[in-house]
Amino acid sequence: MTDILTSSYVRTELTEPRRAPIKTTGAGAFFRERLFSTPFNITLTIVSALLLWFTIVPSVKFLIVDAVWSGTDRTACLQENAGRAVGACWPFIQAKFDQFVYGFYPAAERWRVNLTFALGALLLLPLLIPRAPAKALNSGLFFVAFPVVAFFLLRGGGVHGFFSSLWIDFAIAAIAASLLAFFLTGGVRNGWRSLIMCALVFSGVAIVIAVMGLDRGGLPIVDTRQWGGLLVTLVVSVTGIVASMPVGIALALGRRSTIPLIRVFSIAFIEFWRGVPLITVLFFATYMLPLFLPGNFTVDGLVRVLIGIALFAGAYNAEVIRGGLQAIPRGQPEAASALGLSYWKTTGLIVMPQALRHVIPGLVNSFIALFKDTTLVLIVAIFDLLGQLRAAFADPNWASPTTLFTGFAFTGMIYFVFCFGMSRYSLFVESRLNAHRNV
Questions:
Q1: Burial of 177 per CB tally in 10 Å (0-12, 13-18, 19+)
Q2: Which of 49, 88, 122, 393 suits 213 as a labelling partner, its CA being 20 to 30 A distant?
C-alpha cells in the first residue's frame, strides 16, 4: 500500500524548461520598468521625448551653438554682419553685467557690495553644513551682526551722530556684542571660553569701527535709489525671508492662543495681508504710508518696501506653520505640562521644532515664491535684476533681434540657480531630519 502511494508522486517525465528570469538591474531594466512597461507608458515616453527634443535642442542651439560671444555693439549680433544664423547675443550681457549686479551703484564704491556678498556667503556657508562647529555663535553673527555691518557697508554713514562721543559709541557696541557672544557660547557654564569669545568680539567691534571709519562719518553715503540689479534682489529676498519667519511663528502661535484678544488680532492680521495683493502692499508702503507719518519723520523707500514684504510673507508663513502645529499630537504638550514645563519651554523645545520639521517643503515653497516676487518692486521704481534688464533694453547700441531673448534667458538662469539650490537643500534637510516619518 505504501509503495502504491509513493509511486503516485514520482515524476516519470521531465518538465518543460522555464524561461530565464528577466534582469531586474541595470539600464535595460530601468527603461523597461519605468518607461516602456505598458502601452500607455510607452506613449507618454515618446511624447515626452519629442517635447524635450523640440525644446532642449533649439535652446542649446540658440544659447551655445549659434551664439555670438564677442563684440562691442549691436552690429556683432546682426545676421547680415555675422554671415550666419545668429543666436544669443552674449556681448550684450558682458557689456551690461555690472549694471545687472550693482544697478546704478557708484563704480568706485562697488567693492563694498562685493565685500558684503563675501561676508554673507562666508557666514551662511557654515550654517548650511550640518557638522560645522560653533553654530550658535555663527547664527548670532549672521542674523545680528551681519545686517548691521551690511547696512553701513552698503549705505555708508557713521554712528557718531547718534551719541555724544566715540567712546560711548564704542562702549555700547562692544558691550552689546560681548553680551551676545557671552550668552551664545554658554554664559557662566563655559567660563574662560566665554570670556575669550567676548574679548575677541570686543576686539572685532573695535576693528570694524576703525576700518569703516564709523567714528569719522563712515563711508560715503550711497542712497538706496542708486541700488539695483542682483543687489536689490538679494537684499529684498533675504530680508523678507529672514524677517518673515519670526513674524509667521508669532502669528501662528497667536492664532492658536487661548487669549481672545491675541487670537482675534492674529486672525485679522493674517486674513488682511493674505487677502491683499503684493502690488497693493508695495504701493501702500511706498506712496501712502508717508502720508500717515509726521512731517519731519521720513522712512527710506527701500526700507518701506522691506517692511511691507516681510509682513506680507509673514502672514503666509503663519498659515504654513499653523499647519505644522496642528500636526503635533495633543498628548505631547499635555505630557510636557504634566512634567512641569512652562508654555514657552513646551513650545520652544517640543512643539515648534517638530512643527517646523513637518512644514519644511511648504516654507521653502514660500521662500522660492518670495524670491521670484521680488521682481514686483519694479512697480514702485526700485530696479531689481529684472528691472535693470528692462532698463538695459532701452540702450540703442544693443538693439538687435536676439537681445531681448538673451537677456531674459540670462536672468532666467540666475533665478533658476537660486530657486533650484533652495529646493535641493530643503530636500537634503528634510531627508536628514526624517521629516517623512511619523513621530
A1: buried
A2: 122
Helix (H) or strand (E) holding 417: helix 403-432
Give mean pLDDT, residues 59-76.
84
Please give the C-alpha separations between residue 387 and each of 229, 372, 373, 393, in angstroms, as whole numbers.
7, 13, 12, 10
Question: Do the beta carbons of residue 214 and residue 152 sit within 8 Å?
Answer: yes
Rounded to whole angstroms, the Cα distance separating 308 from 315 reads 11
User: Rounded to whole angstroms, what are the CA distances from 206 to 149, 173, 182, 183, 227?
Assistant: 13, 9, 17, 20, 28
Alpha carbon separation from 122 to 115, 139, 154, 180 (Å, rounded): 10, 12, 17, 20
CA 388-389-390 angle, to 5 degrees, is: 90
User: Phi/psi zone of residue 298: left (φ > 0), alpha (ψ -120 to 50 degrees), beta?
Assistant: beta
Q: Cell numbers of 233, please?
A: 534682489
Q: Kindly report the pTM of this predicted structure.
A: 0.78
- Domain ranges for the chain: 106-221, 230-382
Question: Containing H/E element for 241?
Answer: helix 230-255
What element of type H or E holds 176? helix 166-184
Residues facing 229 on adjacent strands: 384
DSSP characters for 76-140? GG-HHHHTS----BHHHHHHHHHHHHHTT--GGGHHHHHHHHHHHHHHHHHHHSTT-S-HHHHHH
Between CA 157 and CA 221 the distance in angstroms is: 5
- What is the DSSP code (8-state) at residue 16? P
Closest by CA to 65, choosing from 78, 83, 84, is 84
Of the candidates 326, 312, 304, 329, the residue with the CA atom closest to the CA atom of residue 381: 304
Helix or strand run (H / E) with residue 232: helix 230-255
- Per residue in 232-241, pLDDT (tens digit) is 999 999 988 9
Cβ atoms of 312 and 278 closer than 8 Å: yes
Calpha distance 77→89 (Å, rounded): 6
Question: Is 20 a residue whose pLDDT tops 70?
Answer: no
Q: Homologous superfamily of 230-382 in CATH?
A: MetI-like (1.10.3720.10)
- How big is the chain by its Cα radius of gyration, in Å? 30
Classify residue 103 as left (phi > 0), alpha (psi -120 to 50) or beta. Answer: left
DSSP 273-295: HHTS-HHHHHHIIIIIGGGGS-T
